[in-house]
Design a protein that fits this description.
About 30% of the residues lie in helices and about 25% in strands. It is of the alpha+beta class. It has four domains: about 90 residues, Rossmann fold, CATH 3.40.50; about 70 residues, 2-Layer Sandwich (Dna Ligase, domain 1), CATH 3.30.1490; about 130 residues, D-amino Acid Aminotransferase, Chain A, domain 1 (2-Layer Sandwich); about 100 residues, Phosphoribosylglycinamide synthetase, C-terminal domain (Glycinamide Ribonucleotide Synthetase, Chain A, domain 4), CATH 3.90.600.10. Helix 1 runs parallel beside helix 10 and helix 7 runs antiparallel to helix 8. The radius of gyration is 21 Å and the shape is globular. Bound molecules: adenosine monophosphate and glycine (GLY). Adenosine monophosphate binds next to strand 7 and strand 17.
């Protein structure tokens, strides 16, 4: 069969890498792809936002299965367009993707379905937001309602900071229309974990838990990033906790979406805080996590194509999930300055040496190849991922591989997975 992956980051590299291992697949295309992805797939120069061109390509090439990496095309209706043309595609349609693209929709869904989450208030007028912010107890969390590339959420320690941010979002349109509505939430504390499930209308397959590291520097310091590293499984999530999350959070979410007449197909990614009162939902995403997908897919034994196809056709119940024993861990190597501004085009050495190591895969996120030489081309440059007998072993292997790689300004966290080691 022919598979088409949409996206270009480390997550999409991991998807393409895993799909390439399926004996059912003859050909993989990726739009727009990357120099790293080009080793397993034919890259097609179409932007992820150009939905008509993506659909036209899938029709022309008679693609059997399309997999969408990032949220923007899902929120933009790529699945609706493909379905109209009867081309099989994995992911939620535009209305179902609102679970990620509208935080107020997601919060209302949780309230109606008694899904544990932080208390919240939604505003569409700045004056009303300001009155609450004047009276409120701090800290509080302010969130732009719409998609803001991960930058629309801030923890505010006092009323002045919160009002300045609320004003920037709603009146100065700092995030454009994404800030037309603002959600204010109480602050939750605890460990954050990612639970990723595949959903097909009313059946679910819950993948093993993983944990991302969002802040730029060690000990969770510094600015928020797209994610600086991840590992799986997470010892803090025991089997009974995972079953409880499935019963009290995932299933009610999926049923709630059905009742809203927004049946859910695709990835349901639940970002959870493990609070002293139990797991509570921080956010939903409608797509695979990046970088969580990299360590997850390194451990998944099941043919990913069977799983994705099951989620498209509604046959998830027939697929058994199996995982390699042990653990896997991904360390993201970032450009100097990331998540702020950074230089591109810097030569990278050592990728081949790292990849030659046993149970190590380097997933490219922002690289390019110039005259046969690897160069940096993004903020998150690559995710060095290793498998091991447990988190500690995977971590040692991943950091040994990281040692082989250099580029000017390279920075990475040295404490990925530290929490799992106690
Ligand atoms: P979101 O896009 O809603 O997931 O928020 C991004 C990040 O902000 C999350 O991954 C958390 O680290 C943090 N966050 C969001 N909501 C809360 C909350 N209610 N309490 C504490 N941290 C939060
Ligand atoms: N790793 C966080 C995300 O994918 O949203």
């Amino acid at each position: 069969m022919k598979v088409f992956v949409i996206g270009s980051g480390g997550r999409e590299h991991a998807l393409v890498w895993k799909i390439a291992q399926s004996s059912r697949v003859q050909k993989i295309y990726c739009a727009p792809g990357s120099a790293g992805i080009a080793r397993h797939a034919e890259c097609v120069d179409i932007s992820v936002e150009n939905i008509p061109a993506l659909a036209e390509f899938a029709v022309k090439e008679s693609i059997d299965l399309t997999v969408v990496g990032p949220e923007a095309p899902l929120a933009g209706g790529v699945v609706d367009e493909f379905r109209k043309l009867h081309i099989p595609i994995f992911g939620p349609d535009r209305r179902a993707a609102e679970i990620e693209s509208s935080k107020s929709f997601a919060k209302d869904l949780m309230r109606v379905n008694s899904i544990p989450t932080a208390a919240f208030w939604t505003f569409s007028e700045y004056d009303q937001l300001e009155s609450l912010l004047k009276e409120a107890k701090y800290p509080l969390v302010l969130k732009a309602d719409g998609l803001a590339a991960g930058k629309g959420v801030a923890i505010c320690g006092d009323s002045d900071t919160a009002r300045a941010l609320g004003h920037a979002m709603m009146t100065e349109k700092k995030f454009g229309s994404a800030g037309a509505r603002v959600v204010v939430e109480e602050l939750l504390t605890g460990q954050e974990v990612s639970i990723i499930a595949l959903v097909a209308g009313d059946t679910v397959a819950v993948l093993e838990p993983s944990q991302d590291h969002k802040q730029a520097y060690d000990n969770d310091e510094g600015p928020n990033t797209g994610g600086m590293g991840a590992y799986s499984p997470v010892p803090a999530i025991t089997e009974p906790t995972l079953r409880r999350i499935e019963r009290d959070i995932i299933i009610p979410t999926v049923h709630g979406m059905n009742r809203e007449e927004r049946p859910y197909f695709g990835v349901l990614y639940v970002g959870l805080m493990l609070t002293s009162a139990g797991p509570q939902v921080l956010e939903y995403n409608c797509r695979f996590g990046d970088p969580e997908t990299q360590p997850l897919l390194m451990r998944l034994e099941t043919d990913l194509v069977d799983l994705l196809e099951g989620a498209v056709t509604g046959n998830l119940g027939d697929v058994t999930l199996s995982w390699r024993q042990g653990a896997s861990l991904c360390v993201v190597l970032a450009s100097g300055g990331y998540p702020g501004s950074y230089r591109k085009g810097l030569p990278i050495t050592g990728i081949e040496e790292a990849e030659a190591m046993e149970d190590v895969v380097v997933f490219h996120a922002g690289t390019s190849k110039v005259n046969g030489e690897w160069r940096t081309a993004g903020g998150r440059v690559m995710g060095v991922t290793a498998r091991g007998s447990d988190v500690g072993d995977a971590r040692r292997r991943a950091y040994d591989a990281v040692e082989k790689i250099t580029f000017e300004g390279m920075h990475y966290r040295t404490d990925i997975g530290a929490r799992a080691l106690g």
